Amino acid sequence: MSATVRRVVVPVRRRTLTVCLGIVAVSVVLSLLTLSLGRLGLSVADLRDAVTGDLDARSRFVLERLRGPRLLVAVGVGVALGVAGALFQTVTRNPLGSPDVIGLAAGAGAGVAVTVVLGSTVPAPVGAVLGAGAAIGVVYLANGSGFASPARVIVTGIGVAAMCTAVTQYVVAVEMRDSAHALAAYTVGSLSARDLGHAATIAGGLLLLLPCVAALHHRLLVMDMGDELCDALGARASATRTWAIVLSVLLAAVAVSVSGPISFVALTAPHVARRLTGAVGPNLVASALVGVLIVLSADVVAQHVPAAEGLPVGVVTIGVGGAYLGYLLLVHWRNVTT
């Protein structure tokens, strides 16, 4: 990523700033609901005492062992998936593209299944990262040209995802009948029983990867003008696309390692951000904030809405995201036929 590209200065639009501040305000409200609702929820007095560090033992346990880590993981996963989706859709110029599409989620699920079957001491999150990495490696090698051709990447990814799903289903059906429920919860994405170790993992991943994304931001803005102009300005379209996809995959892999593959967040967050801000380009900050909003909303629903109570967060996002995907396909079909 040698920086020979000419610097592009982008003023902060008032509408984008207003939207981002609004999303932050709503996310704060959802965070307070996550901490306070339910039988074990913290009261207003407990939340005030948390600021001063004067909590009793029961409230400290709830904050530090139960609700707090879950909230931190939800925020981190939302940021990671939102940015990953924005990067992927920007460089592939495909509104339906996301790391899920190229087999990352299915690879992570297969990695967890294989790790558990082997009976090793390797933690499930490590198996998820290894599985996701193997799936992306197969996609990269099978194309012959790496990530240079977005269309071939997506088609190959669909095939790799199918193979990984077959591996997971085989393990669940034949090898792990007794443990199938726990594995099924992980493979659709869950925030249950997350601790400070998971929060530290996602925080460390974001601290390492987000500066790399920021360094690539100006190249992504130039790339939005087309590959030829991008090359003419020294931004090297092919290299920029490869770096963006690699960072997108790594962000999604870190998120999967702590929560399992929470589907449709990476796909829908950039779309919602683009519609709310009305801005062109990658919309990285807005996509990250919308990702947080989606995951927090799904978590509140999964914890406290009776019809969905107890479900993994990934099941909630699949239900909402599937409807949104259908809406996008309908809009695309109308645009093509008119």
Layout of secondary structure:
Elements: H1 14-36, H2 44-52, H3 57-92, H4 104-118, H5 124-143, H6 150-175, H7 180-188, H8 196-223, H9 227-232, H10 237-259, H11 265-277, H12 284-304, H13 313-337
Overview of this protein structure:
The chain has 338 residues and is mainly alpha-helical. The chain is 75% helix and 0% strand. The chain contains 13 helices and no strands. The chain has helices at 14-36, 44-52, 57-92, 104-118, 124-143, 150-175, 180-188, 196-223, 227-232, 237-259, 265-277, 284-304, 313-337. Helix 3 (57-92) packs antiparallel against helix 10 (237-259). The protein is globular. The model has no long low-confidence stretch (mean pLDDT 80).
Structure in a nutshell:
By secondary structure, this protein is mostly helical.
Radius of gyration: 20 Å
The end-to-end distance, rounded to whole angstroms, is 42 Å
* Largest pleated sheet: none
Report helical residue fraction.
over 70%
* Arithmetic mean of pLDDT: 80
Keywords summarizing the entry:
338 residues, mainly alpha
